[in-house]
């Protein structure tokens, strides 16, 4: 096969695009839940979830990973919680003071959040 035929055959082929499905966090943690940080520099700190980015699996927790932010309009320094990965936190129950995993349990057509260690619905 000469060069002309080689290029003609390769560039005439249709371009195949793979359908890549990106995984995202679809677990039972939601905004307002009390969580404890289980790893990293802020280990054993407790706070509420302020923001949850399900596509990137990131979470902002109150009082955790606090950074100083410069504001453009004023010369003051602001304080802002930055994102941490969702694998570094765990649900925290205030009544029993225990960290536990949460799971979805189907009850007919509805899904219920279930605490594994506490063995109760939340």
Describe the protein.
The chain is mainly β. The protein has a domain at 23-95: Roll (SH3 type barrels). It is 7% helix and 41% strand. It has one helix at residues 3-11, and strands at residues 34-37, 46-53, 58-61, 66-70, 77-81, 84-85, 89-93, 98-100, 102-107, 110-115, 120-121. The protein has a six-stranded antiparallel beta sheet, with no helix packed on it. It has a three-stranded antiparallel beta sheet with strand order 9-10-11, with no helix packed on it. The mean pLDDT is 86.
Name some characteristics of this structure:
mainly beta; six-stranded antiparallel sheet; SH3 type barrels; three-stranded antiparallel sheet; single chain; 7% helix
What's the SSE blueprint?
Layout: H1 3-11, E1 34-37, E2 46-53, E3 58-61, E4 66-70, E5 77-81, E6 84-85, E7 89-93, E8 98-100, E9 102-107, E10 110-115, E11 120-121
Unreliable residue runs: none
Q: How does the helix and strand content classify structurally?
A: mainly beta
CATH topology of the domain at 23-95: SH3 type barrels
Task: Tell me the strand order in the biggest sheet.
Answer: 6-3-2-1-7-8
The coarse silhouette is globular
β content, as a range? Answer: 35-45%
Highest-level CATH class of the domain at 23-95: Mainly Beta
Order of helices and strands: HEEEEEEEEEEE
Largest sheet: 6 strands, antiparallel
Total number of strands? 11
Count of discrete alpha- or pi-helical segments spanning 4 or more residues: 1
The overall average pLDDT, rounded, is 86
The CATH architecture of the domain at 23-95 is Roll
Helix content: under 10%
Question: What is the rounded Rg?
Answer: 23 Å
Quote the distance from N terminus to C terminus: 69 Å
């Amino acid at each position: 096969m000469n060069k002309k035929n080689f290029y003609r055959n390769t560039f005439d082929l249709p371009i195949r695009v793979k359908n890549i499905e990106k995984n995202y966090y679809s677990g039972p943690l939601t905004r307002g839940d009390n969580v404890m940080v289980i790893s990293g520099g802020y280990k054993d700190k407790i706070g509420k979830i302020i923001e949850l980015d399900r596509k990137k699996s990131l979470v902002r927790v109150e009082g955790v990973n606090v950074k100083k932010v410069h504001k453009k309009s004023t010369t003051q320094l602001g304080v802002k919680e930055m994102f941490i990965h969702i694998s570094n936190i765990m649900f925290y129950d205030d009544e029993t003071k225990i960290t536990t995993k949460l799971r979805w349990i189907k009850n007919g057509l509805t899904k219920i959040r279930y605490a594994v260690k506490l063995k109760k619905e939340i």
